Amino acid sequence: MEVTLLGTGDTTGTPTIGCDCDTCERARDPDDPLRERMAERGVDAQGGVERSRFSVYLENDATGETLLVDVSPDFRHQFLRDGVPLPDAAIVTHVHFDHLDGLGNAYRLFDDLPVYAADETDPVTGESVAEGIRSRYDYLDTVSVHPRTPYEPFEVAGFEVRLVPVEHPPMLCYGLRIEEPETGAVLAITGDTCYEVPDRSRDLLSGADLALVEGLVHAEACEFHPKGGAHHDADGVPRTFGTKHMTLSGARDFAADIDPDDYRIVHTAHYVPAERAFADDIAVDGERFSL
Ligand SMILES: [Zn+2]
Ligand SMILES: [Zn+2]
Ligand SMILES: [Zn+2]
Question: Where is the Metallo-beta-lactamase domain (predicted)?
Answer without folding.
Answer: 52-225
